[in-house]
Design brief:
Layout lengths: L15 H52 L3 E5 L16 E5 L14 E5 L6 E5 L6 E4 L10 E7 L5 E6 L5 E3 L1
Antiparallel strand pairs: 1-2, 1-5, 2-3, 4-6, 6-7, 7-8
Length: about 170
């Protein structure tokens, strides 16, 4: 008669050596992936700022044409009046205005849109024509102005330039 043999126990799990090797591989992968992820975050932050600025410019132009009156966009720290210093990352306002050099909203002018400050690591600077604001006439043209804004991220060499022409067209460089 055959002898009865007890079933052998199947051991499940990881040995200490297998666990240590897995953790070492994971640590090496993280050291490679994290710096690349930082670049993606910086790039996306610049893209968000660019899209907000382009959206505000498009809105201002559209509002000028649809309302049949001048509409201006200027940098603003408080969301109620134009700022004469600082950069565009502090925020901006879109408001109806009178055609001409005065781009400061006054009480009887209507605020159309307010954009609060951007990510503190983002810098948005305008050139001589766009340093304080831009204005659209009722036909959607910028009133005697063309220029650009440079958007950059602190600690990064990447930057995006948003260009506006005299006819009000916006493009990216």
């Amino acid at each position: 008669m055959p002898k009865y043999k007890a079933p052998t126990r199947c051991r499940r799990g990881f040995t200490l050596i297998e666990l240590m090797v897995t953790l070492a591989v994971a640590a090496i992968l993280m050291m490679v992936a994290v710096p690349a992820f930082d670049n993606i975050i910086e790039s996306n932050t610049i893209t968000v700022a660019r899209n907000k600025l382009i959206g505000a410019l498009s809105f201002a132009r559209s509002a000028a044409v649809s309302r049949g009156q001048a509409v201006a966009l200027c940098k603003s720290a408080d969301g109620h009046s134009c700022a004469s210093h600082g950069d565009w990352s502090q925020g901006w306002i879109v408001y109806t205005s009178q055609p001409g050099p005065d781009k400061t909203p006054i009480a009887d002018r209507q605020l159309l849109r307010v954009e609060s400050g951007l990510n503190p690591q983002i810098t948005v600077t305008g050139d001589d024509h766009t340093s304080n604001g831009i204005q659209y006439d009722p036909l959607g043209f910028t009133i005697g102005e063309n220029g650009h804004w440079t958007i950059s991220h602190a600690g990064s060499t990447d930057e995006v330039v948003v260009v506006i022409s005299n006819v009000g067209r916006v493009r990216i460089e």
